[in-house]
């Protein structure tokens, strides 16, 4: 019996060594949770056995208990690197099993080629559908999160407003004939981005040429030339703009500009409003500038706040709330089945997943721009490794001793 007792001790020590080795191998694995081998003694007995004379028969593995303590946190700055501070798991749809939901603590997510939010193995992050204001409707279902490539429809520019301060003390240009390519033929210029109906952005540039010297009242006359995409508008004809002696505009407040963008070739009119502009002894500056066109928004980034709301932002200023990250929790997390790749699936021991969100009771707090590392402590594991090695050596010695006793008996001669 001592032979088999020592053999069970060797097997137990070997299992302990394997568990510790697995922990050490994953010391740099994001979201990894270490395990601890727990053993129980074996007693060979029946109902007639005298409890005072029972001798144990070795050890047996009781369970490899997973340790779900929180791992070290590392700041990355990537908005899709997520961490759960506290209890909970991310829910993901496994890539190689249709419809199978798994759970992970590895929050290193990114966008795949189809713009789904996925982990490094292609598992798609699951989130609740939300309203436009970010609220989760009743009976909201879990689903994949896909980022739209663009947002909104393009709106062509029909009106531009410019409020400026022109320098009435400036001298008339040295070159008498205006030429947009010759800076000496105008006093100043300003540019505004406008949009055609296809959503393409074009630059509207307005050049200002000061006329003859101001009269006795101090009134000044200017001529404005407008160009779009480098081509003159209104056949290159300038628009007179006049100011009185106090610098207030008297004529030229609103101008209709005929604009034919190359994208569609359709001529349309843009109303240019200079209302509020002044001309005095002051440096040139633009006080305000607006235009009513809107380009089609191109995807520029995605962010996740501490409540789990996923928001995509676009070049036209749009922000779209796409979902709310779902978190899962279990009555008995140690009963989860490890599937490799930092995935767990529910079992009868763990119970079914209870779904919730960040900061709710029973769930941790979601953190963006941070990754949870392994919870393996190298120092602790190395100490355990030495202890497991000593256990193996001790059981080997007991086995060798049992073998020598048996050999001694075999060598006895009558």
Gap between N and C termini: 25 Å
Q: In percent terms, what proportion of residues is strand?
A: 35-45%
Number of strands: 31
Approximate shape: rod-shaped
Poorly predicted segments: none
Largest sheet: 10 strands, antiparallel
Q: What is the average per-residue confidence, as pLDDT, rounded to a whole number?
A: 88
Quaternary structure: single chain
What structural category arises from helix and sheet content? mainly beta
Helix segment tally: 2
Radius of gyration: 38 Å
Question: What percent of the residues sit in helical stretches (DSSP H or I)?
Answer: 10-25%
Fold blueprint:
Layout: H1 2-25, E1 35-43, E2 56-66, E3 73-75, E4 82-85, E5 89-93, E6 101-104, E7 110-111, E8 117-118, E9 124-128, E10 142-144, E11 150-151, E12 159-167, E13 188-195, E14 201-210, E15 220-228, E16 231-232, E17 239-243, E18 249-251, E19 254-259, E20 268-273, E21 278-280, E22 285-291, E23 297-304, E24 309-314, E25 319-325, E26 327-329, E27 337-340, E28 343-345, E29 354-356, E30 365-368, E31 370-372, H2 378-410
Parallel strand pairs: 12-20, 12-21
Antiparallel strand pairs: 1-2, 3-31, 4-30, 5-6, 5-9, 5-26, 7-8, 9-10, 9-25, 11-23, 12-22, 13-14, 14-15, 15-16, 15-17, 17-18, 19-20, 23-24, 24-25, 26-29, 27-28
Helix pairs in contact: 1-2
């Amino acid at each position: 019996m001592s032979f088999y007792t020592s053999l069970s001790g060797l097997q137990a020590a070997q299992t302990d060594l394997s568990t510790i080795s697995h922990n050490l191998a994953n010391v740099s694995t994001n979201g990894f949770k270490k395990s601890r081998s727990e053993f129980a003694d074996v007693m060979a007995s029946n109902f007639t056995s005298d409890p005072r004379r029972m001798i144990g028969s070795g050890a047996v593995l009781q369970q490899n208990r997973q340790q779900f303590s929180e791992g070290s946190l590392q700041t990355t700055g990537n908005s899709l690197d997520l961490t759960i501070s506290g209890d909970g798991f991310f829910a993901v749809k496994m890539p190689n099993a249709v419809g199978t939901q798994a759970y992970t603590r590895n929050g290193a997510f990114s966008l795949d080629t189809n713009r789904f939010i996925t982990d490094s193995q292609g598992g798609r992050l699951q989130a609740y559908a939300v309203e436009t204001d970010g609220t989760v409707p009743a009976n909201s279902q879990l689903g994949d999160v896909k980022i739209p490539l663009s947002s909104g429809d393009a709106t062509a520019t029909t009106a531009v407003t410019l409020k400026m301060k022109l320098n009435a003390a400036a001298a008339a240009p040295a070159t008498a004939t205006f030429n947009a390519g010759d800076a000496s033929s105008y006093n100043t210029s300003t540019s505004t981005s406008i949009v055609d109906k296809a959503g393409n952005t074009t630059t509207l540039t307005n050049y200002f040429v000061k006329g003859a010297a101001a009269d006795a009242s101090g009134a000044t006359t200017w001529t404005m030339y407008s160009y779009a995409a480098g081509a003159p508008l209104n056949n290159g004809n300038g628009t007179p703009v006049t100011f009185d002696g106090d610098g207030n505009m008297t004529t030229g407040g609103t101008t209709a500009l005929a604009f034919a963008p190359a994208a569609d070739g359709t001529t349309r009119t843009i109303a240019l409003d200079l209302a509020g502009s002044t001309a005095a002894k002051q440096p040139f500056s633009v006080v305000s500038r607006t235009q009513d066109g809107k380009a089609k928004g191109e995807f520029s980034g995605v962010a996740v706040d501490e409540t789990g709301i996923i928001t995509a932002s676009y070049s036209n200023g749009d922000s779209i709330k796409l979902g709310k990250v779902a978190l899962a929790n279990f009555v008995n997390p140690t009963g989860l089945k490890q599937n490799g790749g930092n995935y767990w699936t529910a079992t009868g021991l763990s119970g079914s997943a209870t779904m919730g969100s960040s900061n709710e009771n029973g769930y941790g707090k979601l953190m963006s721009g941070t990754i949870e590392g392994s919870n393996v402590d190298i120092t602790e594991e190395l100490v355990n490794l030495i202890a497991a090695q000593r256990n193996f050596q001790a059981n080997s010695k007991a086995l060798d001793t049992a073998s020598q006793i048996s050999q001694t008996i075999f060598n006895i001669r009558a």
